[in-house]
Structure formats: C-alpha cells, structure tokens
C-alpha cells in the first residue's frame, strides 16, 4: 500500500491484500528554540513543550474521553500516550519522535466512532518560531514504522506560523470500516479544551 496523502484527503485503511490497518501511531518530533546572544555571541536554548492529544467520540459525536499528558491510557487500553516531553530536542534533531500516541483499532470500544488527534503548544510558543517540528501518522509501533500515510511540517509549512494549536486528523468509522481524514489545519485555540471543542464543532 502506497499512500501519498494530501491535506483534506479521506482514505480507507484497507490494505491491498484486503486486511485492515490495526496499529496506528501518531508521532511528533520537534526541537528547542535557539536564542542568539548579544552581538551574536553565546546563545541559549529555550525548551518547547508541545502536547499531542487524542479525543474519542461515540457515534452521536459525543465526547467520551481525552488521552493526553494527564491521562496516558484510554479506559479500554486501546489508546496510549508515551508521556509528556517538556523540552523537545535540546541538542538538534535526533530524528526520533518526542511524543507518540498509539491506537489499536481492534481493541477500541465498539461504541467509539471517531478518534481525533490534536497538537497544542503548552507555553504558547508559536509554531513558526520552532526550528523544526513535524508530525507523521503511520502504521506500526513506536519502534517499527511500516507505512507513513500522512506527514506535516508545522515549523515550515504554510499557514502554521502565528498559531499554537492544530488539528492533525480524524479516524472515523463508516459502514463498519475505519477511514482517515487528513486535516492538518491550524486553529486559533490556545488550550487543549478549546481545540477539542473546535474538533467537535467543525471536524467530525
């Protein structure tokens, strides 16, 4: 399966051999902000605290629960958060995800119909000020990437500068099959609860 997904595109999660994708990961990699010293000498690093989160909804689009740094596992254990990274890469891009949310679609409570992913800058640091920040949504595990089917460069991508929150994408169930809507849109929200409300109102 080779998917070159565009923002706003909707795809089925069925493979060419007819099997379904089951293990989904959303990984975020970012770096600390570099501050130049007086007259260009010295300098320092400013830690950046980005937060990946996931909201689960039932078929009536009613919010069931949110998995985030303060709630690392869904009640059915199908959604897991790797934990809060408060700094980003302080020594340059190590190529590894700083936070990962994993979803086992087969273990999701059958009442869940929507799984939405969001990103917030906890301290309000502008996406455009971060030297590098990227999101990839892939099949596999945090240690094994099988297939990347959506990527966003939020540090350099058009439209992200001036924002501190975004909606990454939504998995949704239609006629019993899971599909994915790649959203990749910045929002005007400042806090997670505001972004969850935006998803509920505009993206389900």
Protein architecture, described:
Pfam families: TerD (PF02342). This protein has 204 residues and is mainly beta. It has a single domain, classed as sav2460 like domains (Lipoxygenase-1), CATH 2.60.60. The chain is 5% helix and 44% strand. The strands form 3 sheets. Strands 1-13-12-9-5-6 form a 6-stranded antiparallel beta sheet, with helices on one face. Strands 7-8-2-10-11 form a 5-stranded antiparallel beta sheet, with no helix packed on it. Strand 10 and strand 11 (144-153) form a beta hairpin.
Short structural description:
Keywords: Tellurium resistance. With 204 residues, the chain is mostly beta strands. Helix content is 5%, strand content 44%.
Describe the structure using short key phrases.
204 residues, mainly beta, Lipoxygenase-1, six-stranded antiparallel β-sheet, 1 helix, 13 strands
Shape: globular
Q: At the first level of CATH, what is the class?
A: Mainly Beta
Number of helices: 1
As for the number of domains, it is 1
Give the strand order of the largest sheet, numbering strands 1, 2, ... along the chain: 1-13-12-9-5-6
Sketch the topology as an H/E string, one letter per element. EEEEEEEEEEEEEH
Structural class: mainly beta
Low-confidence stretches: none
Radius of gyration: 17 Å
């Amino acid at each position: 399966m080779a998917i070159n997904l565009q923002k706003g595109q909707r795809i089925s999660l069925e493979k060419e051999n007819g099997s379904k994708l089951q293990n989904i990961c959303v990984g975020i990699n970012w770096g600390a902000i570099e501050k130049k010293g007086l007259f260009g000498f010295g300098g320092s690093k400013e830690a950046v605290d980005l937060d990946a989160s996931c909201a689960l909804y039932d078929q009536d689009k009613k919010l069931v629960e949110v998995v985030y740094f303060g709630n690392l596992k869904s009640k059915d254990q199908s959604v897991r958060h790797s934990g809060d990274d408060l700094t980003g890469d302080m020594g340059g891009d190590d190529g590894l995800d700083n936070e990962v949310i994993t979803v086992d679609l087969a273990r999701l409570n059958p009442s869940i119909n929507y799984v939405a992913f969001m990103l917030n800058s906890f301290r309000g640091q502008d996406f455009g000020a971060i030297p590098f920040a990227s999101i990839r949504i892939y099949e596999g595990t945090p240690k094994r990437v099988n297939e990347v089917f959506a990527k966003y460069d939020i540090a350099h991508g058009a439209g992200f500068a001036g924002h501190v929150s975004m909606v990454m994408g939504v998995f949704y169930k239609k006629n019993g099959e899971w599909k994915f809507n790649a959203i990749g849109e910045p929002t005007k929200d400042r806090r997670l609860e505001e972004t969850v409300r935006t998803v509920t109102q505009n993206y389900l």
